Amino acid sequence: MSPTSLPVIQPDAACCTPLTREAIDADRATDLAHKLKALADPTRLRLVSIVAASEGGEACVCDLIEPVGLSQPTVSHHLKILMQAGFLTRSKRGTWAYYRLVPGALAQLSQLLDVTASR
């Protein structure tokens, strides 16, 4: 792998199997609970929505403060939780951080919770 290329991560087939198709193990349940807990906050749901709806699919932290009506440190804390849960990525440009949804992160969660998936 050259220094400028990134490794291709192959999705784990088990990661997207609906919960109703097979029982999940303790590690997977812990990971899923962490992700759901990250989204189970109205401010974080709004931040995900604002980032996803932003032009170019990314938003500067400076543009996220006013819509949610919170201070910059509080917004940054919420964004950190969303990053740790795997929903957002961050890139630094000068003094500002820009956030973008991780491609497929919400779709993966949706597939896990899809009770209509055929058995």
Query: What is the structural class?
Result: alpha+beta
- Spatial shape: elongated
Number of strands: 3
Order of strands across the widest beta sheet?
1-3-2
Number of alpha- plus pi-helical segments = 5
In percent, how helical is the residue content?
Answer: 40-55%
List segments where confidence is low: pLDDT < 50 over at least 5 consecutive residues. 1-14
Give me the strand/helix succession. HHEHHEEH
First-last Cα distance: 39 Å
Proportion of strand residues: 5-15%
Q: What's the pLDDT, averaged over the residues?
A: 83
Main sheet makeup: 3 strands, antiparallel
Query: Roughly how many Å is the radius of gyration?
Result: 16 Å
In short:
With 119 residues, this protein is an alpha+beta fold. Helix content is 47%, strand content 13%.
Could you explain how this protein is built, in words?
The protein is an alpha+beta fold. Helix content is 47%, strand content 13%. It contains 5 helices and 3 strands; from the N terminus they run ααβααββα. The chain has helices spanning 26-39, 42-53, 61-68, 72-84, 105-113; strands at residues 58-60, 88-93, 96-101. The chain has a 3-stranded antiparallel β-sheet. β2 and β3 (96-101) form a beta hairpin. The longest helix is centred in the N-terminal third of the chain and has 14 residues, at 26-39.
